[in-house]
Each structure stands twice: as C-alpha cells, then as structure tokens.
Amino acid sequence: MTVNAYSRAGELAANPRETEYRAFGMVINRMSQAESHTGVVEACHLNNRLWSALTADLSRPENPLPNDLKARLISLALWTYRYSAKVMSGEASPQPLIDLNREIMAGLKGSGAMQPEMQLAH
User: Fold this and answer.
1) Domain that holds residue 89
2) N or C: which end of the chain has fewer CB within 10 A?
C-alpha cells in the first residue's frame, strides 16, 4: 500500500500541468459550493494561494513559457488578487474568478484558447 502511495505521488509530480489542472478544479469546487460568507472567503484565500504559487513559478528564470504568456498570466494573477478582495468584502460575486479558472483549466488541457484581450470585471 505504501509503495502504491509513493508511486501515485511520483506520477502526480511528473505531470505539473495535470497537477495545476486538478488544483484549479479544487478551487472552483470550493468556490462553487461555498454556502456562507466564511466559505467564500476561505475559497478566495485558497484561490489567491494557487495564483501566488503560479506567479512564483512564472517568475523563475528557468520557466520555459514564452515571456509574453508569463506576463499575461501574472497580470491575471494580479487581477485575481484585486477582485478577490471585492468578493471577500461582499461587493462582488465569485463567478468571474470561477470563469477565469475554468478558462485556465481549458488552456492546460489544450482545449481552450485564452484570448489576450479577454475582458474581466474590474
């Protein structure tokens, strides 16, 4: 049983895109199922942690993504932080965060094409 657990952990670590895909799915699930303001706040914090980890990875010189894509993703991360503050204060719905995360998931699976001019609520 322990060998299987280590084997599975190795598989997860071997495919970062799949790990990122699952992480976005988990955050979407938490946001979608939040039934209280506290649940929404916790989901926003989780979303911010995910985007922070992605930003840290994107900022590493050895990250192989094209610089323009890295810059656009970091810009989206900054937007999520600002928008999350509005959601956590009760001024906005979490739906645009959910929608953005779904777009990122589609891009990770290769089935979506994020448009550079994608309009986000401010």
Assistant:
1) 2-108
2) N
